[in-house]
Design a protein that fits this description.
Number of helices: 5
Distance between the termini: 80 Å
Order of helices and strands: EEEEHEEEEHEEEHHH
Structural class: alpha/beta
Helix content: 25-40%
């Protein structure tokens, strides 16, 4: 069998394809095979230089099978935001969290289940969503809106201050569906821009078929909403 160290620098990585996986193989002078990392973003394996490629592949497969068998069953971590549960998926590419294909992707360094950490994640997602929606209505009305601010408010889902040039949203909106949040952002933007009621109603009729339901929910959840 061919020795995999022949013709290669011991410290230069190689790249193999194993069972439809692209793995980075790093050689070392002695020792045993070690799986340094094996996830969606990277698969890195240490292999002693004196081992043949066939032996290395066989050993890697065995290690992976043992790892799968011995791994405890852990239910997927979830976060309940925007009116529904989402699976939390660790990722390495971006330090910011984002929603894609029905899941919330979080940088692996922040992937913790503590209550405080999840609360921070909830508010980050809410801020992202509100800023995205305000940009949408800025384009629609051809205007410039102030930056959104957030605070806990049990009385109103949003408040507007023309003198301070502020639109403030309740942090608790993170419990609402995305459609209901968009409705609140739209109403807040209309209030800030002093949009005529007829013009506002026309957009509501066209874009928010569930507006009556949203109004009932908001009146029930917020004491001073009108």
């Amino acid at each position: 069998m061919r020795n995999i160290s022949r013709g290669f620098c011991v410290f230069c990585p190689m790249y193999w394809e194993l069972d439809n996986h692209n793995i980075e193989v790093r050689l070392r002078e002695s020792g045993t095979i070690e799986i340094l990392r094996w996830d969606e973003d990277a698969k890195i394996v240490y292999i002693p230089a004196g081992l043949s490629q066939a032996e290395a592949i066989w050993s890697i497969r065995n290690l992976l099978q043992e790892k799968i068998k011995s791994a405890p069953h852990v239910p997927p971590l979830q976060l309940h935001v925007f009116g529904r549960p989402w699976a939390l998926v660790p990722q390495w590419r971006s330090k910011s969290c984002y929603i894609k294909n029905g899941a919330i992707y979080v940088h692996a360094s922040r992937f913790k289940s503590g209550t405080g950490q999840l609360h921070v994640l909830e508010q980050e997602l809410l801020r992202q969503k509100v800023i995205e929606l305000m940009g949408k209505w800025e384009d629609f009305f051809s205007c410039i809106l102030p930056d959104a601010t957030f605070r806990k408010n049990e009385h109103r889902p949003f408040s507007v201050s023309h003198t301070k040039k502020k639109i403030t949203f309740d942090k608790g909106l993170v419990r609402s569906s995305m459609e209901q949040i968009e409705y609140c952002v739209f109403r807040a933007c209309c209030l800030y821009l002093s949009v005529e009621p007829k013009a506002m109603d026309a957009v509501i009729h066209q874009c928010f078929p569930s507006a009556r339901l949203f109004e009932k929910i908001l009146q029930h959840e917020y004491k001073r909403y009108s």
